[in-house]
């Protein structure tokens, strides 16, 4: 995995980011991943060296976090 520095923070983040909009409470939207699928995706991302996750409190009403 390639990493870059996040601004002037000195924090090294992966150049690949995992978007987390499909994570959260599935009852809100049928296209969301279930908890098992989410866990598998996060584990795989971490195994690959990804440490940059895009999430926000507006994704699935804040439940993606």
Automatic annotation (TrEMBL):
SUPFAM superfamilies: NAD(P)-linked oxidoreductase. InterPro entries: AKR_Detox_Biosynth, NAD(P)_OxRdtase_dom_sf, NADP_OxRdtase_dom. Residues 15-65 form the NADP-dependent oxidoreductase domain. GO terms for cellular component: cytosol. Pfam families: Aldo_ket_red. Keywords: Oxidoreductase. One of its GO terms (molecular function) is oxidoreductase activity. PANTHER family: NAD(P)-LINKED OXIDOREDUCTASE SUPERFAMILY PROTEIN (PTHR43364:SF4), NADH-SPECIFIC METHYLGLYOXAL REDUCTASE-RELATED (PTHR43364). This is Aldo/keto reductase. It comes from Piromyces finnis.
């Amino acid at each position: 995995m390639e990493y870059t520095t996040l601004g002037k923070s000195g924090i090294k983040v992966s150049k690949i980011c995992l978007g987390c909009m499909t994570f959260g409470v599935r009852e809100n939207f049928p296209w969301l991943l279930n908890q098992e699928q989410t866990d598998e995706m996060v584990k795989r991302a971490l195994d690959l060296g990804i440490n940059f996750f895009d999430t926000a409190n507006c994704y699935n009403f804040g439940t993606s976090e």
